[in-house]
């Protein structure tokens, strides 16, 4: 039942970061606290702007009193933490929530046109108004950031004094007051004019977004991290910052990592041992493990010794890379590989306990219904649990395009936990027929289209990066683009047949030399829920009909022939035949932000119908 309004818990109240019991500034959903408004992001509340505080700090931390623990050992291991916590939630009777700090500090008064720091307007306590005009103050529309994650105020003083040849060296020492006005002639940056009462010529904001605009002023990043508070010293940084609009998506991009709960971790047996796994996994001998458990728990160990040994063996089996290759990417790929194995094999009903969170079964229908389509091995995932953790965040660039060195940390000091969300639901897993896929991948036209997408993706990442040598390889291979596009058309088709909106479904791709599968599952834990409608679509007869219908629907787009004949589309040309009228999905449903898609690899083109993996469906 839904609690009465007076008792309803708000999903993460946003409050100030200076002391307890400060006024609530607004509210966000719990899931948004790791996907949209996570640590280090900017959040607009009414006419004010704030930065979400870090996980630690004197009075600025995320309170753990109302942030329940959640466990997912496989993901915790590769992220180097003991457990995860849901973002804080609070109601009108509690004191804590997500803490924020005012940022940017530079504000503009629309009445007197003055541009200065918030406190210099002498606003009344708890209000953001000009102390002279009593007009609502407007936060600066512009901030600067670098690829290391640092965030700072836009240098208005240096910008307006550059015309006088004084630049950054004397900016702020003239004794004048900055003013900002809009000419009203257009909506461009040329109409935003900044001046100083010291008498320097008035300048516009035009050109401030150039990549080297601040470098030309002699400015370098100061390494400031306002989300960690004023007591945390700035980091040394040699990068050149870039100007961004305060509301730009480039200001904050989450680095999210996720894992499915699979046996033997999926029944919660290992949860009581979470703080001690780092110690236990270094022991190889059964007697050493037994002695360690006795030291930790005495005679009241919550997990039998045999089960502990089974869990340790499962962890060692997953960690198969050599010492010289034990990078985060290798561990994360090993995590996906193990999920693929369990989804492919399923789990025996006799081995399941009541607490089991992973139930994957073979359909009861006739598997020959899928013969000739190119899809095989469907599995009904009747119960699953996914944990999504916020590892870090980036600015200015796609999180997948940069190395770990460019990830901004959520806290000043290492912590034993990270914020995360858990999703429980259902799904359908399927694989592509390996023999048919191997032959299709070798076709020169197929490889050429995938290579064109990969080249465009890498070019886009290099253009956004200050150091192109740190850019990671593009994941765009023929089978990856094929699986990705197939997942999109299936989600669109099931949104019509399964009773779920497209935004409530999500893809999970398994694409490398050893894997060729996809999982479509319920991606939300609220109103759409898990009602069994998606699992019912995985029976072979119904799945075969769905795939045929989805492929026929994808063979035509309302934007054709422009769409199917497109040589490049999407951000930076990272798609080919793909648009919002045919295969693109809501952002919550896609693992790759609606890039690396090509409908032609499914259905072919008018010039080359055999290019499509499923072209045979259209010929019958």
Record keyword descriptors for this entry.
620 residues, alpha+beta, 8-stranded mixed β-sheet, disordered N terminus
- What percent strand? 15-25%
- What's the rounded overall pLDDT mean? 84
Report, as a whole number of angstroms, the end-to-end distance: 51 Å
Radius of gyration: 27 Å
Q: In this structure, how is the largest beta sheet organized?
A: 8 strands, mixed
Counted by DSSP, the helix tally is 15
Give the overall silhouette. globular
Quickly give the structural class: alpha+beta
In helices, the fraction of residues equals 10-25%
Low-confidence stretches: 1-11, 16-20
Say how many strands there are. Answer: 22
Topology, pairings included?
Layout: E1 13-16, E2 24-27, H1 32-35, E3 42-45, E4 48-52, E5 69-70, H2 73-79, E6 83-85, E7 98-102, E8 106-108, E9 115-117, E10 138-139, E11 142-145, E12 151-153, H3 156-161, H4 167-170, E13 178-182, E14 192-196, E15 203-204, H5 213-216, E16 242-245, E17 253-260, H6 277-280, H7 286-297, H8 305-318, H9 328-345, E18 359-361, E19 375-394, E20 417-432, H10 434-441, H11 444-464, H12 478-497, E21 505-511, E22 516-522, H13 540-554, H14 600-603, H15 615-618
Parallel strand pairs: 1-7, 6-20
Antiparallel strand pairs: 1-2, 3-4, 4-7, 5-6, 8-9, 8-10, 11-12, 11-16, 13-14, 14-15, 17-19, 18-19, 19-20, 20-22, 21-22
Helix pairs in contact: 2-9, 12-13
């Amino acid at each position: 039942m839904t609690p009465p309004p007076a008792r309803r818990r708000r999903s993460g109240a946003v409050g100030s970061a200076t002391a307890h019991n400060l006024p609530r500034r607004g509210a966000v959903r719990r899931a948004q606290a790791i996907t949209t408004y996570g640590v280090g992001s900017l959040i607009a509340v009414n006419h004010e702007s704030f930065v979400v505080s870090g996980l630690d700090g004197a009075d600025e931390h995320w309170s753990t009193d109302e942030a329940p623990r959640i466990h997912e050992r496989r993901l915790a291991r590769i992220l180097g933490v003991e457990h995860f916590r849901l973002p804080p939630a609070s109601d009108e009777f509690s004191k804590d929530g997500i803490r924020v700090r005012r940022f940017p500090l530079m504000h503009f008064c629309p009445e007197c046109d003055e541009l200065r720091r918030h406190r210099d307007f002498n606003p009344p306590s708890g209000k953001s108004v000009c102390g002279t005009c009593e007009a609502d103050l407007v936060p600066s529309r512009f901030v600067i950031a670098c690829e290391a994650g640092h965030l700072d105020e836009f240098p208005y003083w240096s910008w307006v004094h550059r015309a006088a040849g004084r630049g950054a060296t004397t900016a702020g020492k003239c004794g004048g007051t900055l003013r900002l006005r809009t000419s009203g002639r257009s909506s461009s940056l040329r109409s935003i004019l900044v001046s100083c009462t010291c008498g320097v010529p008035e300048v516009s904001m035009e050109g401030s977004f150039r990549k080297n605009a601040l470098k030309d002023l002699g400015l370098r990043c100061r390494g400031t991290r306002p989300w960690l508070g004023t007591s945390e010293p700035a980091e040394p940084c040699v990068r050149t910052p870039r100007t961004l609009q305060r509301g730009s998506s480039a200001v904050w991009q989450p680095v999210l990592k996720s894992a499915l709960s699979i046996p033997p971790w999926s029944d919660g047996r290992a949860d009581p041992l979470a703080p001690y796994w780092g110690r236990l996994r270094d022991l190889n001998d059964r007697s050493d493990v037994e002695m360690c458990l006795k030291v930790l728990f005495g005679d009241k160990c919550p997990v039998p010794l045999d089960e502990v040994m089974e869990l340790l063996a499962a962890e060692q089996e997953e960690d198969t890379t050599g010492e010289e290759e034990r990078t985060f990417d290798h561990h994360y790929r090993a995590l996906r590989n193990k999920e693929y194995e369990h989804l492919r094999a399923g789990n025996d009903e006799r081995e399941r306990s009541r607490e089991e969170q992973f139930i994957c079964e073979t359909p009861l229908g006739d598997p020959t219904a899928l013969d000739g389509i190119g899809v095989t091995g469907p599995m009904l995932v009747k119960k699953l649990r996914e944990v999504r953790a916020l590892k870090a965040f980036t600015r200015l660039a796609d999180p997948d395009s940069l190395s770990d060195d460019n990830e901004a940390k959520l806290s000043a000091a290492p912590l034993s936990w990270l914020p995360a969300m858990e999703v429980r639901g259902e799904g359908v897993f399927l694989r592509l027929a390996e023999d048919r896929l191997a032959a299709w991948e070798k076709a020169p036209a197929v490889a050429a289209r995938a290579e064109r997408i990969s080249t465009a993706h890498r070019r886009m990442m290099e253009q956004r990066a200050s150091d192109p040598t740190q850019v990671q390889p593009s994941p765009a291979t023929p089978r990856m683009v094929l699986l990705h596009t197939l997942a999109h058309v299936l989600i669109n088709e099931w949104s019509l047949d399964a009773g779920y909106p497209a935004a409530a479904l999500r893809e999970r791709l398994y694409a490398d030399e050893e894997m060729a599968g996809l999982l479509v599952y319920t991606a939300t834990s609220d109103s759409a829920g898990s009602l069994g409608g998606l699992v019912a679509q995985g029976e072979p007869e119904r799945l075969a009909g769905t795939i045929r219908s989805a492929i026929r629907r994808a063979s035509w787009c309302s934007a054709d022939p422009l769409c199917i004949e497109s040589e490049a589309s999407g951000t930076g040309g990272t798609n080919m035949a793909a648009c919002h009228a045919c295969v693109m999905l809501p952002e919550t449903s896609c693992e790759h932000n609606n890039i690396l898609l090509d409908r032609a690899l499914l259905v072919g083109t008018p010039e080359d119908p055999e290019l499509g993996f499923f072209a045979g469906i259209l010929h019958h």
